[in-house]
Amino acid sequence: MARVRLPAGAFSKMDEKIENKGEQHTNAVLKKHPEAKKKFNFNYDKHYGKLFLIPVILMLFSVGYLFYFYSQTGEFIIKDVSLSGGTTITVFGNFSDTEIQSLESSLMAQYDDISFRRLTESTSGKSSTFVIESQEGSEKITASIEEILGIKLTQQNSSIEFSDSALGESFYRQLITSLFISFVLMSIVIFILFRSFVPSMAVIFAAFSDIVMPLALIDYLGIKLSAAGIAAFLMLIGYSVDTDILLTTRALKKQEGTINERIYGAFKTGIFMNVTALAAVLPAFFIVTGLPDSFRQIFFILALGLVADIINTWLTNASIIKWYCDRKGIK
Description:
With about 325 residues, the protein is of the alpha+beta class. It has helices spanning about 10-30, 35-40, 45-75, 80-85, 95-110, 140-150, 165-195, 195-220, 225-255, 260-285, 295-330; strands at about 80, 85-90, 115-120, 125-135, 160-165, 225. It has two domains: about 45-80 and about 165-330, Up-down Bundle (Multidrug efflux transporter AcrB transmembrane fold), CATH 1.20.1640; about 85-165, ACT domain (Alpha-Beta Plaits, 2-Layer Sandwich), CATH 3.30.70.260. A four-stranded antiparallel beta sheet has the order 3-4-2-5. The radius of gyration is 29 Å and the shape is elongated. The relative contact order is 0.11.
């Protein structure tokens, strides 16, 4: 069979013709349907101001709800007995679901400020332990439990803890003070690092929003915050400023590429950090059933804060940085 030899460069010419035909076809489609180009081409320079409105609305709504909550309760959070003082009774034993449900409904009817939690075994999933918290005295709660269950609470089948309200209030004030000092010190470090008012305030505002938004949602859900929950908000300060410092440093101190390319590069790195942290936190909250409530509360608050950080870093902080660079002529 005779072999056909193509002239040198034939394949490259064929590729060039195919590419040209492809470009001609694409241009013809865009000319005939100009809306197709708009559909797939997001103009960040034009819309970043609109994106900024989303977190601002969420922030205003969160602040408004916190003040509404304060007007109704006199507090910005719902404190558990570790912060407000009261009695914590843990009962162990083999109780049926009917007995536990009867105990819970009876106690809820007798006391207004009582909370009831079941602790399930990680292997069988059965509720063998339950925890009761109330600001009432331990003797009164214990008598009610013994009457409903028909048993005597002893050191073998129960654990009773009582914390004084004055001690809990003092501990709460110390935690809030440490949270405030941590935020102030973080703000000072940010101002020293960037030495510019607008970028520094953008980072501080994003970190503040990362605390306010989860707090408003926690109040809305009626979750009682413990000392571990306050510690989780302390951790959020560190989590939130990581991505904000990454974004601001890439945008203002790097020279390669345009400002949009630097913001997008920081976004790819930062969103990977957030998703990785969420992948570590969420399974521990939803899958691991044997964790103490304090650990679960930490994981839940961190998850809320990480989601808020995605919104506040890449919609709030990025929009402010973009506006600042355009105003200063930073390309």
